[in-house]
Design brief:
This protein is α/β, with parallel strands linked by helices. The protein folds into two domains: 11-124 and 137-155, HUPs (Rossmann fold); 157-227, HUPs (Rossmann fold, 3-Layer(aba) Sandwich), CATH 3.40.50.620. Helices cover 32% and strands 17% of the residues. It has eight helices and ten strands. Strands 1-2-5 form a three-stranded antiparallel beta sheet. It has a three-stranded mixed beta sheet with strand order 9-8-10, with no helix packed on it. The protein has a two-stranded antiparallel sheet with strand order 3-4. Strand 3 and strand 4 (86-89) form a beta hairpin. Helix 7 runs parallel beside helix 8 (203-212).
């Protein structure tokens, strides 16, 4: 939050913390189970791997009392149009897999949490990294199962220190230096293939200039960029 503010980027409305949303996630799961749209599964990763690597619906009709929760994925969306990449298609097996929406350790799955949060906040466009491109099909399936209108998606190239090694907390990448906000904005625009902005301006003016000349068509077409 401090980093966003330092770079002149401000949010609309009230901040939403996932830690405050656990009851909403559980209420959705309870409803799905009650409507026979989700079920408990006790298959381990090793067992799934032994059966081919993708979950085969093994526990769908077992009526288990506990375990991980899987959605009954009768929708199976296998393609969508990304605003940068164009048409994206995944295998039918991946598209139709009954994916996990709550893990056996009690943690709510990313797929469920982000969909419910974006619905709650009325999101219409999602911009994120290329590593989540294929997973978008699962989220689109979940939107349809829940009877909600899905947003549009745009996936950007990943910033990588080495091939396949993205800059992230998980990989111990250095934090952004808030003391060099103007330079950071310029570097970010360069990374995205955008025209340069005047660093003699205020941060707010730099952002206004960047927005006025921003072009989706000049964003690099690659999935990752080494920096």
């Amino acid at each position: 939050m401090r980093t966003l503010e330092a770079h002149g980027l401000h949010w609309d409305g009230k901040l939403l913390y996932q830690s405050d949303r656990l009851s909403a996630y559980q209420a959705c799961i309870d409803q799905l189970i009650a409507n026979q749209q989700a079920y408990y599964c006790q298959c381990s990763r090793k067992q799934i791997q032994a059966r081919g690597g993708l979950y085969d619906g093994h526990c769908r009709h077992a009526n288990l009392p506990h375990g991980a929760v899987r959605i009954i994925n009768h929708v199976g969306i296998n393609k969508f149009t990304d605003l940068r990449v164009g048409e994206v298609q995944v295998s039918d097996d991946f598209a139709h897999e009954d994916f996990i929406i709550k893990r056996s350790d009690g943690l709510y799955a990313y797929q469920l949490a982000v969909v419910l949060d974006d619905i709650e906040q009325g999101m219409t466009e999602i911009v994120r990294g290329f590593d989540l491109l294929e997973a978008t099909c699962r989220q689109l399936s979940l939107y349809q199962i829940l009877g909600k209108t899905a947003p549009k998606f745009l996936h950007l190239p990943l910033a990588c220190a080495d091939k396949g090694f993205k800059l992230s907390k998980q990989n111990h990448a250095l934090a952004i230096d808030n003391n060099h906000a103007k330079q950071n904005i310029s570097k970010a625009l360069q990374f995205l293939g955008q025209a340069s902005v005047d660093e003699s301006l205020t941060i707010e003016q730099m952002l206004q200039q960047a927005v006025s000349q921003f072009k989706l068509t000049t964003i690099p077409s690659s999935s990752e960029i080494l920096i």
